Amino acid sequence: MGQQYESNLFHSFDKFNLIQGEQAVFTGPITVKNVISRVTGGEISHIDGVLSSAIPAADMYFINPAGILFGPHAHIDVSGSLYVSTAHSLQLGQVGHFDAVNLENTLLTVAPPSAFGFLDNHPTPITLTGSQLILPPDNQAIKQLLQGEAIPSHTLAFVGGDISLNQSELRSYGHNINLISVAAPGEVPIDQSQFPDNRLAAYGTISITDINTANRRFGHVDASGLGGGSIFIRAGQLLLDQGWIFADTWKDQSGRGITIETNNPLVLQNGSRITTEVVDNYFPGQATGQAGSIAIKAGDIRLSQGSQIASSTSSSGAAGDVTLTTPGTISITGVDRTGTLALPSGIQSQTSGRGNGGQVKLVAQQIYLDDEAQINVGTASSSGQAGQLSLQVKTLEIRNGAQINVGVGSQNNPTGTGKGGQITVTATEQVLISGQSSIQQSSGLFSNVFSSQGEGGQLTVSAPTLTLENGGTLQTVTFLNGKAGQIKLQVDTLKLQTGGSIHSDTIAGRGQAGDIEITAQRAIQLEGNSTGISAATDQFSFGPGGEIKITTADLQLRHGAAITASSQGQGQAGHLTFILGGNLFMENSTIRTSTARADGGNISLTTPGYLRLTNSEISARVKAETGNGGNIILEPEFLVLNNSRIQANAFQGKGGNIDITTTGIYNLSAEPIASVITASSQLGIDGEVTIHSPENDATEGLIALPTPFIDAADLLHSGCQIQDVRELSTFNHRIDREGIPITPDSFQE
Q: Which residues does 389 contact at the CB level (< 8 Å), separation at least 6?
């Protein structure tokens, strides 16, 4: 019957084991609030039967410092909270102790348990093998739950050394679950909200593993229910191998979330999941609560083979927030293709219903996404608003078809008014986006909107170096009538090469292409076919092209690169503005505003340096029967044209105007300057070409001076004469850092 101190009922066992079919029932008066048991004999407790308390709503504490093992037939039948621990003692209030090792230190009081005490660096483990422990299991509580009635909140807690769940299940139907693994002496508070940072010197390992989750309906650690119970995990390392941690919410109550902190890596592999979702499985049409948040701090965070961290919603309830913080690396890689659907590794705070997406914040030294991995804060529906994403990193790498998405809707069903979310990337070193997957999926940042009226979101990147290569993409595309989102870049150096691209386009409908604003303190370099920056509308669109504004010291376009603000439909072309602090060099490249059926866009370029075009074109043309050519304003120090053209032409409408202010134009082409710089109209009125320059063409009219050879013998006969040192001349030969003479088109870092 134990020993009772007011609301505390104490039991002491030399050994405690339950085999299959056995049941240990703790009884006592209804005044008992805490049933407290210790095992003192130094032997591990094997529990493969039923651990039960017949005292209504009483909390139960079971400690054995020698270790605790739950088997495949283990069950619990406790109507209150259950705390299982391999602690050496249990603290009661401020002064009381219930000690399982040094029995003489025991001091029983009426105060409720307040903390678990550990004496050494190697607390024994708690192991579950094939176990299913459910709190509460009684039919009345489940009936109340399904009827939507409020029930008291309890806790299922395991506090000890290493904690292992192998093909096992902890389920609480909306109650709280705490897992704390200890590897140092100290105290662990009963109330996890009183758990401060770095309370102990070291923590142990928690592992959750399974070999087959194909037919599993519940998580291995599952606090899902009305409001979703909170889950608190504190460990040195957390490993999930096909392991699931769920705290999903049902009906109209908002979830209470998951908090995880580990000193060392948090590893999710082989389709593991951590979720706080809004689901309507049990209450169809009534799931209006908001998903709980997920907050994780870890030494590193690694997701692979289709593993996911998600706080999403499939109803009208809003998705929750996800915050991941690490002093190391967040690595997300791979796809799980074992099922009927390919599931990418990723972080999700999205909605497939009417609810809005949540907010995701990642803070790390490095964030690495590879092999079709995803971070998705968008919405698969057309009415919900996409969420917000913030990345604070030293370096960000996105490779081989991996994507970050804050888009809205589905390309297969573009309806509704959903608005795209925001992506904000702040990197102290570099952002690299590279490559495509085996199915030609581009790596990149996306805020696409597939809805009839929704607008695109905004992509903002701040970094010393931003590189897009091998198909790497930044994209805010909208489908139908919404305006495409904005792209804002604040960098030192921007490099686009071998198919790297930036798009803020509109496909079909009356939507306007988005705006792109790029500030690069040092340089912008574009190189290669299919490499470019675009704010365009397609041939099925009625809306205008977007505006592109570029501010940089030096701008270089090579080998087929292009910057365009065009309209292939009925809308007007967009505008291009360039503010340069240095030079613009173009080789086999294009800067263009064009339109098929309306007016061309304007191009404005100002630089104190030179503008050199080789086999290139700057144009504001109109291809359609109607529509005027765009205007071009150029203000370089020098303009060098080598087999290149500047055009503001039209077909039936008026040609655009070209205004050039420069100290000199150097036409190295075989054609005259009037054929190289044109503002003509095939059937309409030509535009005006105005050149403000001391010399329109510094090469025209040059006289070739004779250069006869000098006979060296004549110099010998003339003798040497002493000259005044003041009459000496000098010849300077400039060499760049590579040891090669500097040329006007050489790259300079």
A: 359, 360, 361, 375, 377, 404, 406, 421, 422, 423, 424
| pLDDT of amino acid 141 | 59
Q: Could you read off the pLDDT of 508-562 as tens digits, one per residue?
A: 767 777 899 999 999 999 999 999 999 888 777 677 778 999 999 999 999 999 9
Q: Where are the beta strands (DSSP E) in 100-230?
A: 113-118, 126-129, 132-134, 155-160, 163-166, 169-171, 176-181, 186-189, 205-209, 221-222, 225-226
pLDDT digits (tens, 9 = 90+) for 657-698: 999 999 999 999 888 999 999 988 877 888 899 999 775 444
Distance CA 565, CA 586 (A): 17
DSSP secondary structure string, 447-487?
A: --EESSS----EEEEEEEEEEEETT-EEE--EESSSPPPEE
Confidence bin at 144 (pLDDT 50/70/90): low
Residues 6+ apart with CB under 8 A from 180: 157, 158, 159, 160, 188, 192, 195, 203, 232, 233, 234, 235
Cα–Cα distance, 695 to 702 (Å, whole number): 12
Closest residue by Cα to residue 274 from 153, 384, 410, 177: 177
Pairing of strands 516-527, 562-564: unpaired
Quote the DSSP letter at residue 599: P
Q: Report cis status (omega within 30 of 0) of the bond before 708.
A: no
565-595 burial: b if 16+ Cβ within 10 Å, else e: bbbbbbbbbbbbbbebbbbbbbbbbbbbbbb
Quick: pLDDT tens for 217-263: 899 999 998 878 899 999 999 999 999 999 998 877 888 999 999 99
Residue type, 303: L
Report the candidate in 138, 124, 170, 130 with the shortest Cα–Cα distance to residue 47. Answer: 130
pLDDT at 622 over 70: yes
Q: Which helix (H) or strand (E) holds 141?
A: helix 139-146
Left (φ > 0), alpha (ψ -120 to 50) or beta: where does 225 sit?
left
Question: What whole-number distance in Å separates Cα of residue 664 and Cα of residue 235?
Answer: 70
Structure confidence at residue 149 (pLDDT): 65
241 strand-pairing partners: 209, 269
- Distance between CA atoms of 141 and 147, rounded to whole angstroms? 10
